[in-house]
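Team,

Forwarding the record for the chain on the shared tracking sheet. I've put the sequence and predicted structure together so nobody has to dig through attachments.
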Amino acid sequence: MYVRNIKKSIIYALSDTPVILVNGARQTGKSTLCRMIMKEGAFQGKFVTMDDPSILVAARKDPLGFLEDLGKQVIIDEVQRAPELFLSIKKLIDEDRKNRRIILTGSANVMMLPKIGDSLAGRIEIHNLWPLSQDEINGKYSNFLHILINVERKFESSKILWKEIAEKMRVGGYPESLERSTTSRRNKWFADYLTAILQKDIRELSNIEGLTEIPNILKLIASRVGSTINMSDIARLSGVKNTTLKRYIALLEHIFLIIKIPAWTKNTEGLFVKSPKIYLNDTGLLNNLIGLEDDSFLEQRSNAGSYLENFIIMEIIKQLSWSDIYLKAYHFSIHRGAEVDLVLEDRAGGLYGIEIKSSASIQDSDFNGLRKLANLVGNKFKRGIILYTGEQYIGGFGANLQAVPISAVWES
């Protein structure tokens, strides 16, 4: 049983927010997390799931009566299957905001469903649950983001072998994947997992005929992780229209299999790349989609740059989901070639740049993208780091520019 770092944030939110929504892909542990919160006594109420056909029928037939029978506190699992509940939830909350508490879980982003976002505005707090992070797997709580924004603090030097990093990327963070002892067993689980999602979640969310096309589109996206989206290229290779492709990508984002990182731009026309980047939610899933039966691929650093970028970006996204620090994630790229893999912006507009390198050594030229960003934004640039696979923390590359061992992300 893994302790989820987001649990504390959810329990805290229950003190003043009537509805808590825990969003995330299937099999990331939403139901387990909610049962743990109940077991520890932080929430007293019933647990019902819309995956139970008889419960689903009752919820759809008489939403208000269904909710009233459940009592003041209830956890409703897979609520996206019964959107009829939301107006009744609003009514009951408005009648007794102080005492009624409802936790919802969704394997699809229910706030994107028509009228639902408006019906619960001001009454709901949203928490995204991703696959397990490395610090959760290790039973820790990383202070990486706190150290990053405190520019006077230094990261620690730490050693990790590339084989260990490759293994972490191979396995990923899905709890079920962590229980599989071999790549072939993990691949079998992921294949069944994707089939189930296609047949259940995507079919229910959208009346589309192209269910057979989506796996190929997902594989094309997987082969381009860390790159800006070229819709025309993917549409050509998949044989679908651009408009259809956009709809499919929106569906994959809707069920949390992919995540888009928008571009950070300044008001300078023509200079900045404005397309978002796409990442898979998990590198175990990524390996399956690419078809890596031979594990030796990841054991060569030079082959694994985009995999490592996907892995680290998602580790940081996971930490942002439970951190008390507000930082918004972007990437930075200009048409003349300078880029920064991840840019985190605070509420005041301060920027923290992060480059990700698979190499075990750092050259001064590796900081060129961070320097370009720093020159463009001036005093708003707070810190720039390169996460690399060496073991030494190294400063002296310029004002607030440092090389940091990649394991600092989960071991700080």
